[in-house]
Design a protein that fits this description.
By secondary structure, the protein is mostly helical. It is built from four helices and no strands. It is found in: Cell membrane.
């Protein structure tokens, strides 16, 4: 089957949205690391409602959750591409995968810092 570009702006965007939704669903239902991050995000959202956090706190929390899940998705994509290109262990592929995992760690640490700034004062 040959790829055919949709020349209509509206239907092209609708198809793009459909593919994005399918990708997000695959990511959320097949990748354990994303399942964990989404679960933590759900707990943090519930805590936000419980503690009645401010609009500014909601913005930072929502941004942090989105950042972490998005970077986790990019990490997963990089790993899948690397595994497809070179299924056996290779030092350079391992280096690339480690860097992608490091990006997730930076995002997660940012999320932890934001969560701590929002919720630690509420417990004190």
């Amino acid at each position: 089957m040959e790829f055919q570009r949709d020349k209509s702006f509206v239907t092209g965007r609708l198809k793009s949205f459909k593919f994005a939704f399918i990708g997000a669903w695959k990511l959320a239902t097949t990748e354990h690391s994303v399942m964990v991050q989404l679960s933590i995000g759900a707990v943090m959202t519930a805590m936000g409602f419980y503690f009645k956090i401010s609009m500014t706190e909601w913005m930072f929390q929502t941004f942090a959750i989105g950042l972490i899940v998005a970077i986790e998705g990019l990490n997963t994509a990089a790993e899948k591409i690397a595994d497809f290109i070179h299924p056996e262990y290779h030092e350079k592929i391992g280096f690339i995968k480690d860097i992608a995992a490091g990006a997730v760690m930076f995002a997660a640490l940012t999320g932890v810092a934001i969560g701590a700034m929002i919720y630690v004062p509420k417990f004190l």
